[in-house]
Every structure is written in structure tokens, then in C-alpha cells.
Specification:
478 residues; Growth Hormone, Chain: A; 20 helices; 0% strand; transmembrane helix; Sugar/inositol_transpt; cell membrane
Length: 478
């Protein structure tokens, strides 16, 4: 949605402060923290409902739905976002989503049975689904190439912080109190933050509120920023690409639009089918089955803490090594460590005596997997989502990809118990290892390098240049 130019970077004065870009990105990233709480809370909920003093009884068939039900709501939320973002703007959507999100957490905190819990998780998923794609787009619009890679990692980093928060609370509190905290803390931060943050400059230009758009750019880039020139660039790009939803979808026949969508969609599939989200969603249950001799909540907290530290560490590597190198290395190390975990479970399934003295191996293997994932696959998947979509169709195509991401995540969480029953724990982890092996090939052969490039340069170099003239026949220049 954001139109930029290789020359527009010169408008960003060296003396302009980045503090408002960072603070704005932090507030936006809290949206993903709230979303990740659904996954972390689901893990401790399933763990505590298995205990003898559980206040709510759910059947084995209902457990996967408690985990995946939130992502059914997320899919519907993403569909609504396609229309709401264009009408109300991403900032306003993220501001007002706090109301239904808080209601959803209240339903979970007050639940006395399966259906109220399910309803609460569905409502939270719906609320978060409406604004999750807007979060990445908003950050990509307010940042510049030299800091965009770091800022686009913030949502993934905050998502991990949400998991760590939930696991820690799950160790200390009953799940009802955890729901209260998850419903209050993130929503208060988002609500207070968006009272001050301006609306997306591109959305303001699309509504012909040019003065407000210039003020929004000045807020994030400093008073010496050439906001009027950037507004004209945005306006020119939007004027060239005024299209209906049907016309926008028809553009996908052309490779300049289809290629980035397919690349991101495949990357999101690998992201979910690498098994990391399933591991975090069922972390308490997995460690309980592995019988590591360590408290399962402590194990889950260790994983989340490692993931958080590595997410932070990835900010120093992403613009030094580049997207492709990190994705390839991440996929290779994940493949090896997941295969080792699968081997542990295989030996355990054959004869438990064979793994005597190796009870530390599942936790060590998962730590290695999380380190590798958090330095590459996890954050970079979201970075390329923010960088590769053509500006003129980013709003609609971004929602479509988030719908796809939610469906694949729901599928993984829903079938994970059936996979372990069908393939065993060993076969399931070997399957995840195979997906990570595909990541190495996909990153090396398909994913373009976007490091330190403007959004326009990315599209011109990797997509428009390869199919020049094709998009122009539909009036869809970038």
C-alpha cells in the first residue's frame, strides 16, 4: 500500500530522530503480543485442565478445538479486515479492536464450561484477525530501509514475549487469572498508544487528507522531513492504481503480482508446518509426555525465553547477513535438531531403557530448534511479508495471505494430536524436520534478497523487471 522511491530516502534527514518510529512500532507490535497470548494461554489451559482439580471438564475431542478455535475467528477477522481497513484505516482498527478483544478474554476468565471458553477464544481470534495484517503494513509504512528490517522483527519478538508471559503466569496463577491479565495488559497498552499515534499516511492520502498525511509523516520522520514531496509520491502511486476488489484480484494473473504472493504464501506454509507453533501450543503437554524430570512449565518458559533472546539477536544479523542466508541456515539447523528429537522419541517408543540418561535431550533439541527458528524462519517470514507485496495491492493481498496463514496455523494445531497418534511422536518430529529441509531449498532457490533496498527497488528488481509491460496492460503499475 505504501509507495516509495529510491530517492525518497534522501528526504529522511540524518538529524531526524527515530524515537517515534520505534515507539510506534512497539505499540503496533503489542497487537501481535496479544494475539500470541491466545497460543500461550491455550497451552497452559490444556495443561491445567488435565489436572485432578480442574474446574472445567473437556473431552479429548474438544481439546484441539480449544487450541484451534481462536484461529477460526482469526480467519473471519481477516476477511472483515479486507473491507474495514480501507474504510476506517489501520490505526483506528487497531485502536478499537481492544474492545472485542477484552470481551473475549472476559468470557474465558468467567467460563464454566467448554462452550463459553470456545466463544471467548473465537471472539479474541476475530478481534486480532481484523488487525494483524494492518500491524505489519503500518510498520513498513512508517519505517525507512535502514531500520525497516529491525522494526519489522518487533511483532515476532513481541509475540514471543506474549508466550513467555503466558507460561510464566501459568506457573504462578490459575488459568482464569491468566485470562484476566491477558485481557488487561496488552489492551491497555494498545489503547493508550493509539490515542497518540497518527493514522497511516497512505490511508490518509487515499482519503485525500493530504495535510493530515504530511503531519503523520512528520511525526515519524522529524520536522525536517520533506513530507509534501513524499505525499505527492504516494498520491501519484495511488492515482495510477485505482481499482475495485475484482480488478485487483484479476491482477494476480500477472507474474509481477502472483510471484510475491506465492513466495510469501509458501513461506507462511513452511512457517506453520515447521511445527514450532504446534510445539509452543502443546508445550506443556509435550514436556509432560517426554518425562524430562523437569517441571513442564519451566521447560516451556525456557523455550519462550530462548526464542525471545534469539529474536532480539536476529535484529543484529538480518541486515548484515541478509534474508536468504539466514533463512537457509535456520532451515538447516532446524532440520538437524528436529530429527534428533524424533530419534529420541523413536528410541523411547522401542524401549524406554534405551533413553536412560537422555531425558535432557528433548529440551536441548527443542532449544536448538527454537534458536535456529528464531534467528531466521520466524522473524524473516514476517519481514518479507512486509517488504515484498506490491504497494498498490498490499492491503487486499496482505489480508488474503493472513487468511491463508491463519488457516494453515489452525490446521497444524487441529491435527497435531492426530498426527502424533498416527505417526507417533517420532514420526511427527521427522515430518517437521522434512518441512525445514524444504525451507533450505526454497530460501536458496526462490526467495529474493531484499536487504537494504527500498520497497520500490524490491518490486522493480525482482518482479517488475522480469515481467516488464505485463502489469501495464491492466493499468496496474507499481
Amino acid at each position: 500500500m505504501f509507495v516509495t522511491s529510491r530517492h525518497s530516502e534522501y528526504f529522511d534527514c540524518e538529524g531526524a530522530k527515530s524515537v517515534f518510529k520505534i515507539l510506534g512500532s512497539v505499540v503496533v507490535a503489542t497487537v501481535t503480543l496479544s494475539y500470541s497470548c491466545l497460543l500461550g494461554f491455550g497451552s497452559i489451559l490444556l495443561g491445567q485442565l488435565e489436572e485432578d482439580d480442574a474446574t472445567v471438564v473437556v473431552s479429548d475431542r474438544q481439546r484441539p478445538w480449544l487450541m484451534g478455535g481462536a484461529y477460526v475467528g482469526s480467519v473471519l477477522g481477516c476477511i472483515l479486515a479486507t473491507f474495514l481497513a480501507k474504510t476506517f484505516g489501520p490505526s483506528r482498527i487497531m485502536f478499537w479492536h481492544t474492545l472485542p478483544n477484552a470481551i473475549g478474554w472476559a468470557l474465558q476468565a468467567l467460563a464454566t464450561g467448554f462452550w463459553p471458553l470456545m466463544a471467548g477464544r473465537f471472539v479474541c481470534g476475530l478481534a486480532c484477525g481484523v488487525c494483524v495484517s494492518s500491524a505489519q503494513i503500518y510498520i513498513s509504512e512508517i519505517s525507512s530501509p535502514r531500520v525497516r528490517g529491525v522494526l519489522l522483527i518487533l511483532p515476532e519478538t513481541f509475540a514471543t514475549a506474549g508466550l513467555l508471559m503466558c507460561y510464566t503466569l501459568g506457573l504462578l496463577l490459575h488459568w482464569k487469572m491468566v485470562a484476566v491479565v491477558c485481557g488487561l495488559v496488552p489492551n491497555l497498552v494498545i489503547f493508550a498508544g493509539f490515542l497518540r499515534l497518527p493514522e497511516s499516511p497512505t490511508w490518509l492520502v487515499s482519503k485525500h487528507r493530504l495535510s493530515a498525511a504530511a503531519e503523520s509523516l512528520l511525526f515519524f520522520h522529524g520536522r525536517r522531513y520533506a513530507a509534501d514531496s513524499q505525499v505527492q509520491l504516494i498520491l501519484a502511486g495511488l492515482e495510477q492504481t485505482k481499482m475495485s476488489v475484482c480488478e485487483t484480484l484479476r491482477l494476480m494473473r500477472h507474474s509481477v503480482y502472483l510471484q510475491p504472493v506465492l513466495i510469501i504464501a509458501v513461506q507462511m506454509t513452511i512457517l506453520n508446518f515447521s511445527g514450532i507453533n504446534a510445539m509452543f501450543g502443546y508445550a506443556v503437554v509435550i514436556f509432560r509426555l517426554a518425562r524430562t524430570g523437569i517441571n513442564e512449565y519451566h521447560c516451556a518458559m525456557v523455550l519462550a525465553a530462548v526464542r525471545l533472546l534469539c529474536n532480539i539477536g536476529s535484529t543484529t544479523l538480518i541486515d548484515r547477513l541478509g534474508r536468504r542466508v539466514l533463512l537457509s541456515l535456520s532451515g538447516a539447523f532446524c532440520t538437524v535438531s528436529l530429527a534428533v528429537i524424533g530419534a529420541y522419541f523413536y528410541l523411547r517408543e522401542q524401549d524406554v531403557q534405551q533413553v536412560q540418561g537422555l531425558h535432557w535431550l528433548p529440551l536441548a533439541g527443542m532449544i536448538c530448534t527454537i534458536c535456529s527458528y528464531s534467528l531466521g524462519i520466524g522473524p524473516i517470514s514476517w519481514v518479507i511479508f512486509g517488504e515484498m507485496l506490491p504497494s498498490s495491492v498490499r492491503e487486499l493481498y496482505g489480508s488474503i495471505i493472513i487468511i491463508f496463514w491463519s488457516l494453515t496455523l489452525f490446521t497444524v494445531l487441529q491435527v497435531f494430536p492426530e498426527l502424533t497418534a498416527l505417526l507417533g511422536n517420532s514420526g511427527t518430529f521427522w515430518l517437521f524436520a522434512g518441512v525445514c529441509a524444504v525451507q533450505v531449498l526454497f530460501a536458496f532457490c526462490v526467495v529474493p534478497e531484499t536487504r537494504l533496498r527500498t520497497l520500490e527497488d524490491i518490486h522493480q528488481e525482482h518482479f517488475v523487471g522480469k515481467s516488464k509491460g505485463e502489469a501495464e496492460t491492466e493499468g496496474g503499475e507499481i
